[in-house]
Amino acid sequence: MRTPEEIALRAGVGFARLLPPGRQVFAERALRLRQLAAGHAMRDYLLLMALVCEAQHERLQQHPAVPLPSTDQADAAAHAGQPLLGATTWAPDPVWQSELRALLDLVLQRLPADSPARAGVRAARELEDAALQRQAERLLATIPLGLDLATAPLIAAGLQLHWTHLASATAAAQPNAFGVTDDATRCPCCGSLPTASITRIGGGQDGHRYLHCALCSTQWHMVRVKCTHCQGTGGIHYQSLQALADSTGPARREAVQTETCDSCGHYLKIVHMDKDPQVEPVADDLATLTLDLLVSDAGFERHGTNLLLLFGDGDDAPPPERGSA
């Protein structure tokens, strides 16, 4: 059966296929993290990430100009069906490192003097350029081997800042810069995985589902009841913490669910603005880690990532790289 969105598309009803990141994306994420932190088992970490997002917001407002893709590059990427600002193909301007350090300086200014998080922030702040670049390349290529998991979310915050600026500035300079790419399960701007999907409310977006990029915060449309990994429509199920805790109670849709696919064995979370208008894909994903653990225990593998909290096999990784103090 076709979804309402598929029917609308065939009927010629238009809505935004792609939503570039706005200037308030990090501020909204920080606010949501602070809301979710109250009484949460991960309170301290959520508040630390709120500080990081607030610093991202401040740096985004005054981000220095960087080279943007030309119209010829945009045309070539669209013709090839590839993302224009590919995470592994677009070379970030070196300014991203100085912006990261400025971001971390803001975090250090606001962290309490006795906060145990200060050591990790300083460690990321003191990484030398070459070591920082190596860590960034592993993050962008999703290579866990050799990644310092302690500093990775902080380095990722700098990369998010840079690519969010790139996506926003490019969309402003060339409204049609981002074409349809061959892989609909990855961001059409930078080719990164999504963190979660969101069903939106209001205007022409009402009821439509968008995937939210983990790196550049772009949102791109994907019809509902469709696997975000294999794009199949059979064997799709939804689970929430409330449903898993009380399987005998009446079924109801929660603001945060996992969308699992029996066909390929993958899942991704979906957040619903009609259930809570203040949901934010990255923040709500981070605050529902228990749901990931339960779905993973059931045998499903995640399609997507949250760069604010990364996991890996630390035993196989070499010691973290550190710059001189």
Overview in brief:
By secondary structure, the protein is α+β, with helices and mostly antiparallel strands. 39% of the residues lie in helices and 11% in strands. The chain is globular, with a radius of gyration of 20 Å.
Structure notes:
The chain is of the alpha+beta class. The chain contains 11 helices and 8 strands. Strands 1, 2, 3, 4, 5, 6, 7 and 8 form an 8-stranded mixed sheet that branches. Strand 3 and strand 4 form a beta hairpin. Helix 5 packs antiparallel against helix 6 and helix 5 packs across helix 8.
- Main sheet attributes: strand count, strand direction, barrel closure: 8 strands, mixed
Query: Which overall shape is indicated by the principal axes computed on the Cα atoms?
Result: globular
For the secondary structure, the number of strands is 8
Question: Over all CA atoms, what is the radius of gyration?
Answer: 20 Å
| Average pLDDT for all residues | 90
- Number of contiguous helices: 11
Distance between the termini: 61 Å
What is the beta-strand fraction? 5-15%
